[in-house]
Specification:
45% of the residues lie in helices and 15% in strands. 38% of the residues are buried. The longest helix has 30 residues. It is built from 36 helices and 26 strands. The protein has a 7-stranded parallel sheet, sandwiched between helices. A 7-stranded parallel sheet has the order 22-23-21-24-25-20-26, sandwiched between helices. The protein is α/β, with parallel strands linked by helices. It has 5 domains: 204 residues, Nucleotidyltransferase, domain 5 (2-Layer Sandwich); 143 residues, P-loop containing nucleotide triphosphate hydrolases (Rossmann fold); 69 residues, no CATH class; 148 residues, no CATH class; 208 residues, P-loop containing nucleotide triphosphate hydrolases (Rossmann fold, 3-Layer(aba) Sandwich), CATH 3.40.50.300. Helix 12 packs across helix 13. Keywords: ATP-binding, DNA replication, DNA-directed DNA polymerase, Exonuclease, Helicase, Hydrolase, Nuclease, Nucleotide-binding, Nucleotidyltransferase, Transferase. It comes from Lactobacillus helveticus (strain DPC 4571). It is an enzyme of class 3 (hydrolase).
Length: 927
């Protein structure tokens, strides 16, 4: 391949500075530069620069550059001529070029020099485009993921070298792309940062001159290059009978899997259950490291030759992927069975090729969307599934996703029908023997034909199943948001300069419709107001009132309290539904007229039509929610199975009222789900409370099922892997002194740790602790992450796994819901015993329902839930035989309260009771 950049010299620059705001007196303290010629790093430069200012502690923590490192060094005025000479005639490159180049130019101008006018390109955008499936684009993460060696991350010279090698890898990757992909990337790239598009366009233009045949692993549909899809299942292997005795299993396992007595016992009990026609369900507690996933797959696998499928439901995508990518391949390797497996998730996870291609020709509304489009183009040359989760995005809030997520319809006749990712996924699922899904999807799609006839079911992490079923059924009717939709619609129709009325004022039929529609919209708004007033008027019946941090009033209700016999709400809701349907129908008629008018006007109305269509979709959404609510209200007997929450954004204004509803009792729904499946196994490492399954059986609504119970043994000696330490002289957990002690423990006692999880129960306290420790010199090597501060929980989990040293301060799902596979955790701090806050509306409503039934809420609900969550927190540490770690309990109530015994009973090792001072000494001994 010709050397495209043979005549170009790249100067890859990285600056370390005293801060990010150059206009506020922040200065450069190190200039690093790596020179690339002929795709090789030929020279590096590093200048330490005296800023004549104190270096902030946060910068010292990040860079390792101290005040004494720059004292006595020359200031920027000495280095400016040298820097100008080094960069003369080069292409300026940086990882976040819009920071480094303006900062450098500002210093140059301040010292009387001209600003640099070099071509400038950005390796952040280029890395995202070239490597679209990486989980992070921070330089330190990229160099680790791409195996780029540089010695001192966050030092300018080392970072410049690392960025230079990264640029070379990016160029090689772009050069390897199919020409049609490069052409489209080039056509989209003009809005990239500064001159970044020049690099892509230069590669595309040069390679276009060569005749490059499309690789045999690709296919082209229109101008989109895709990996060739294989929709034929690769059947291989042999059918076999379940190995009954130990010798048969040892023969199968030899050289592939260690024979462990506890795991084999688990397999045998599961196999016996699956073959017992008199039993429908089994509850299993299998300790971490038992190999429970392989065990249940092995036990069921030999039953799948009768055409019946095994459905496995897990709580998270991470677990789904682990089962598909690791556990099932291991099963097939050991057994040599001829089975196939597929993930089942909603269509919105898959790329809609028709929708995506349409967005490319619509113009680009913003930079993030542009980069995402370019990432997807490159990803399409790599993906065999079209599953958007492969892109490792932490949220799907970008506007582009509304257009490119697959709606789930069967594509027939479209240009991409033959390669439609969702249709191909459904075909593979229909033919597969094992289907792996998540709890929420199963709860909402248990009647789907995809599961086949009389399928088996395993609920993995079963202690979370009821909670996930409930949350999947919770919903809301946000009246303020609907009001906003109607206001925006009126603006599109009547008030905007490019609106319908202003553009088409001579169309008699259209204007008749518009006049009629406006009065209907105003009447609908009045209906909304009536509903809001009806709800707000019941505030005295709330079982709980809370003012949230943002000022919203949160009112929790039982069904009978909000919708009593005298309530006019149901009547008002019917009127609202009728009026909403009339507005939607009239708006559709307006849209129909506009499509007829479109060809006769010169102005471009595509955007207007698209926006009106979008508002109709939103009206459909609110109509659907209103009918869901009407169904709940129509069954007065079951009304108290649900809780209701009013969210009043302005506590003094009834017209700021919104309604949420949530399921309090899932028994009926759970029984409906169970009726669809056969021989259901409920498996978790934490299903027992007080050494029995009573709480789990009640929660999972299994009391009436013919049930098998089994508590497995650990496959290794947990005492050699887990150390539990409890501090016995901490102050009251509700005191300021308690938070201060936690902060000091984190600052002083983590010297030998790499990955630390701090589990709390209050989001506000998380913020306080985070702010106190974030700039501590003692923690300078740690990436400190906090729930509610450092992005989504998904993003926090990914950063934690990637970082060499990291601390998470979290609550809620970090006790049990977020997965950290492939990341050993050294220490888990249980800052407080994990009782749920009674201020949470769902907790208060559930407890009120139990109180009304005469049930001891603390004994039967609060304590068992807390104990299971406590065990889950401990289970974060030891996932397998290679893991070792400390579980440090800081809550003094473990010793001072009678209920502390319930927590002590579930700890599988002897608890080491220490003082705060002794905890510090333990750490010092390890140094």
């Amino acid at each position: 391949m010709a050397k495209i950049f043979a005549k170009d010299t790249f100067a890859v620059v990285d600056l370390e500075t005293t801060g990010t705001q150059r206009e506020k007196g922040h200065h450069i303290i190190q200039f690093g530069c790596a020179i690339i010629k002929n795709m090789k790093v030929v020279k590096t430069y590093s200048f330490m620069i005296n800023p004549h200012h104190e270096i902030p502690q946060s910068v010292v923590n990040l860079t390792g550059i101290h005040n004494e490192d720059v004292q006595g060094k020359d200031d920027f005025s000495v280095y400016a001529p040298k820097i100008i000479e080094i960069l003369k005639g080069t292409v300026f490159v940086a990882h976040n070029v819009d920071f480094d180049l303006p900062f450098l130019n500002y210093e140059l101008v301040q010292h009387g020099y001209e600003a640099l006018t070099n071509k400038a390109i950005d390796t952040v955008e280029l890395a995202k485009i070239a490597f679209p499936t990486l989980p992070s684009y921070k330089l330190s993460d990229l160099t680790a993921q791409l195996k780029i060696k540089h010695l001192n991350p966050h030092k300018a010279d080392s970072d410049a070298y690392g960025t230079a090698v990264l640029l070379i890898k990016i160029i090689h990757k772009l050069e390897s792309l199919p020409q049609a992909t490069l052409n489209t990337l080039s056509s989209l790239s003009s809005s990239l940062i500064r001159d970044t598009s020049w690099l892509i366009t230069t590669i595309a233009d040069n390679l276009r001159k060569q005749k490059r045949p499309l690789g045999s692993n690709y296919m082209q549909v229109r101008n989109i290059i895709l990996q060739k899809q294989n929709d034929q299942l690769d059947r291989h292997g042999e059918n076999a009978h379940f190995p009954i005795n130990d010798d048969e299993k040892k023969k199968l396992f030899k050289g592939k899997l260690h024979f462990r007595r506890a795991q084999v016992d688990l397999i045998n009990h599961l196999h016996k259950f699956v073959n017992n026609p008199d039993k429908r369900a089994m509850v299993v507690e299998a300790p971490n490291g038992t190999g429970k996933t392989f065990s249940y797959l092995f036990a069921y696998a030999y039953q799948l030759y009768s055409g019946r499928k095994l459905v496995v439901a897990t709580p998270t995508k991470v677990l789904q992927e682990q089962i598909i990518d690791h556990e099932i391949p291991q099963l097939l390797k050991v057994t040599k069975l001829d089975l196939t497996a597929e993930v089942v998730k909603s269509s919105s996870h898959y790329l809609d090729l028709d929708g995506f291609v349409q967005t490319i020709f619509q113009g680009t509304p913003n930079k993030n969307t542009l980069v995402l489009q370019m990432q997807i183009l490159v990803w399409l040359t790599e993906t065999k599934t079209g599953d958007l989760d492969e892109l490792n995005l932490t949220n799907y809030n970008a506007p582009l996703f509304a257009q490119i997520q697959h709606p789930g319809d069967a594509r027939v006749g479209s240009r991409f029908a033959s390669v439609d990712f969702w249709n191909l996924a459904r075909k593979r699922q229909e033919e597969a023997d094992i289907l792996v899904t998540n709890h929420a999807y199963l709860a909402n799609h248990y009647m789907d034909t995809i599961w086949g006839q009389n399928p088996y079911l395993v609920i993995d992490e079963a202690h979370r199943f009821t909670e996930n079923v409930i949350s999947s059924r919770n919903d809301s009717l946000r009246f303020e948001a609907l009001w906003g939709v109607l206001s925006y619609l009126r603006n599109l129709l009547y008030f905007s300069n490019n609106g319908v009325e202003n553009q088409f004022n001579d169309n008699v039929q259209l204007n008749f419709l518009l006049k009629k529609l406006d009065s209907q919209i105003l009447e609908l708004i009045q209906c909304i107001n009536d509903l809001q007033k009806d709800l707000y008027a019941q505030n005295k019946n709330a079982v709980n009132k809370t003012i949230l941090a943002n000022g919203t009033l949160e009112l929790s209700f039982q069904g009978k309290g909000l919708f009593n016999k005298n309530s006019q709400f149901k009547q008002s809701l019917g009127k609202f539904q009728q009026k909403l349907e009339e507005v939607r129908e009239l708006t559709n008629q307006v849209l129909f007229e506009l499509y007829h008018e479109q060809e006769q006007v010169l102005t471009n109305t595509e955007t207007l039509l698209s926006e009106i269509t979008e508002q109709i979709d939103r009206l459909d959404y609110y109509s659907e929610k209103s009918y869901q609510l009407a169904d709940i209200l129509s069954d007065s007997q079951n009304l108290d199975q649900d809780g209701f929450i009013l969210m009043v954004t302005n506590p003094d204004d009834p017209l700021s009222t919104n309604l949420d509803w949530l399921m309090l009792d899932a028994e009926d729904v759970l029984n409906q789900i169970y009726s669809r499946f056969d021989h259901i196994a409920f498996i978790s490492a934490t299903l027992t409370s007080n050494h029995n399954f009573d709480y789990a059986i009640n929660q999972l609504a299994l009391s009436n099922m013919s049930l098998v119970e089994y508590i497995g043994k650990s496959t290794f000696n947990i005492k050699k892997h887990l150390q539990v330490i409890a501090v016995n002289n901490m102050p009251n957990p509700d005191s300021e002194a308690y938070e201060e002690d936690i902060e000091q423990i984190l600052i002083n006692d983590l010297t030998n740790k790499n990955h630390v999880l701090v589990l709390m129960t209050n989001l506000e306290k998380i913020r306080t602790v985070f702010m106190a420790i974030m700039n501590s010199p003692e923690l300078k090597d740690f990436e400190i992450l906090a729930q509610g501060i450092s992005g989504s929980n998904n993003r926090i989990a990914k950063r934690f796994v990637i970082a060499k040293k990291a601390i998470i301060i979290g609550a809620d799902s970090f006790w049990e819901g977020i997965d950290f596979h492939d990341c050993g955790i050294d220490t888990v701090f249980a800052a407080r015993l994990p009782f749920e806050s009674p201020d949470q509306p769902e907790v208060r409503l559930r407890q009120k329902k139990l109180e009304d039934q005469g049930i001891n809420v603390f004994e039967k609900d609060s304590l068992p839930r807390a104990v299971i969550r406590f065990r889950q927190g401990m289970g974060r540490l030891i996932r397998g035989e290679k893991d070792h770690g400390q579980y440090i309990i800081l809550d003094p109530r473990l010793w001072s309260k009678e209920y502390g015994k319930a927590f002590l009973q579930v700890i599988p090792v002897k608890v080491k009771k220490v003082t705060k001072e002794e905890l510090k000494e333990l750490e010092n001994k390890k140094k």
